[in-house]
């Protein structure tokens, strides 16, 4: 047996607390009754509270809660085998992690917003293989083409500036992405790169690399991140203090979106350029565009699925709640069988 939501099992540790609470409530009720009449006389003037019935009700209630907590944890046993056919595109995400991506013109900053939007984008995919390339002055493959979106999500959360050589080199990012696609004649029809950057390239060779990608049939969509006006780049120290990046002369360095290169990279490959404004990041529009492209067969997966058995424990919990509800706490009042003058 396994549990799909094992965190709910921690609720079982609350049962001793509820047991103590029930005991305290019983003692307090008994103490309050003793204020009006002595405990030996209580059975003679009212229907007596039965401690045994009280114990039975409390035990049943605790068992019902235990079964309910187990049901919430979704116990599973028994497996079935499903064969799933997967069809989709090969998508390579090129994410800029240069220092300028820390600018806060898009909240909370350019990089964090990019990570959030990619995460939402991954949740919208079905059957497409995905790869992740991080770049600044150099490029590095973080995740090769895979159908395991969870792995991409996990690596994505840790992306931050400082991993790679400083700077912004769009050409290296594009070439690294090209290397990930299959080397077949038909591969280009199903291959897409999505480049997310503020466009501040230093080498100015990105368009050359994009033209080579276009010859292979690879389409590149670009998303420009940041404002068109210059903004400073905040640098947070280990102590939490925030300062702004300065040049060798002590002047504050500013960064702004450079759209021209990003637009040309998209145009030469038959893709589109999108401007990510603070209210709309545009990745979902890319998804709409590529949805019209021809999909390829990624083969089938054999998936073992476990059968949920929480219904059994939920039924037991509800049954015990009903039983507890209909059990009275009060025992039968004893009748005095002696005659009046005995």
Q: Your description of this structure?
A:
It is a single chain. This protein has 342 residues and is of the alpha/beta class. The chain has two domains: 13-75 and 309-326, no CATH class; 84-300, 3-Layer(aba) Sandwich (Rossmann fold), CATH 3.40.50. The protein is built from ten helices and 13 strands. It has helices spanning 15-34, 42-45, 51-72, 110-123, 149-156, 170-178, 206-215, 259-269, 283-290, 310-326, and strands spanning 2-3, 75-88, 90-96, 129-135, 139-146, 191-197, 219-225, 231-232, 234-236, 242-244, 254-255, 273-276, 296-308. The strands form four sheets. The protein has a six-stranded mixed beta sheet, with helices on both faces. Strands 1-2-13 form a three-stranded antiparallel beta sheet. Strands 8-11 form a two-stranded antiparallel ribbon. The longest helix has 22 residues, at 51-72. The model has no long low-confidence stretch (mean pLDDT 84).
